[in-house]
């Protein structure tokens, strides 16, 4: 295949644009914000689970407190009833003695229940503080996730702008090459990542391998308009003078 040396040199400009487009693609896949978001999402889930756990505990304590208060109210009501009955003067001596014993039992029971209620209330207060803390921690985790997502979106928007601009440049540049040369370049780029590179100082600019003497001699003997390729990686080698 033959192509004007000036046209071959323009392949280096095209390769530079393709390299930038490849970097954009790689950058899009490897944005540090992507890993950061994954970690932030995991942290948010953990904080949500922690909040659910303490809220569940608080709900259980609320039910226990309500049940305890109900039982205390029932015991207190029974004591009030016994006291009224004792004060009515309508009961006999034996029944009065029984009521006194029952009232003493009720008062002891009420005291135990009230102590238990106080302990429940103290536990509830501590768990309520845990709930408040868990909510704050969840809010922090969500804020960190939103901030990382915003940075990712900004980075992606910048990459999109660069990609759009450079893709337009490439489209214009590609029209300046013969079809057969462009097809060869694109096929090599798709297979190996680099379609064309400079040959200078005995080395291929694509694979960075220094060619042996036989290959170097063959390249130097080729006509200026001959399209030559690297024996190692297949890239189109664009020959430039050492002074270029």
Automatic annotation (TrEMBL):
Keywords from the UniProt entry: Coiled coil
Domain annotation C4-type zinc ribbon: ranges: 203-237
Name of one Pfam family that matches: CT398_CC
Coiled coil: 124-165
Domain CT398-like coiled coil hairpin: 14-193
InterPro entries documented for this protein: CT398_CC_hairpin, Oxidative_Scav/Glycosyltrans, Zf-RING_7
UniProt keyword annotation of Metal-binding present: no
Entry protein name: Uncharacterized protein
Source organism per UniProt: Lentzea fradiae
């Amino acid at each position: 295949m033959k192509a004007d040396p000036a046209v071959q040199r323009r392949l280096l400009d095209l390769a530079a644009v393709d390299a930038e487009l490849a970097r954009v693609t790689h950058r899009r896949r490897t944005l540090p914000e992507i890993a950061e978001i994954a970690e932030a999402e995991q942290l948010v889930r953990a904080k949500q689970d922690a909040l659910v756990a303490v809220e569940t505990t608080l709900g259980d304590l609320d039910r226990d407190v309500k049940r305890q208060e109900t039982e205390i109210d029932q015991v207190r009501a029974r004591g009030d009833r016994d006291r009224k009955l004792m004060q009515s003067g309508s009961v006999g001596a034996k029944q009065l003695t029984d009521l006194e014993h029952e009232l003493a039992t009720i008062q002891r029971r009420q005291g135990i229940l009230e102590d238990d209620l106080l302990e429940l209330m103290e536990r509830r207060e501590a768990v309520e503080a845990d709930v408040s803390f868990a909510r704050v921690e969840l809010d922090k985790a969500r804020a960190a996730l939103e901030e990382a997502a915003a940075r990712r979106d900004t980075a992606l928007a910048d990459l999109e702008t660069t990609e759009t601009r450079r893709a337009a440049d490439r489209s214009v540049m590609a029209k300046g090459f013969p079809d057969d040369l462009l097809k060869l370049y694109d096929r090599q780029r798709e297979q190996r990542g680099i379609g064309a590179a400079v040959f200078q100082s005995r080395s291929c600019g694509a694979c960075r391998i220094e060619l042996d003497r036989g290959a170097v001699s063959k390249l130097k003997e080729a006509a200026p308009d001959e399209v030559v390729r690297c024996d190692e990686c297949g890239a189109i080698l664009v020959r430039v003078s050492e002074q270029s």
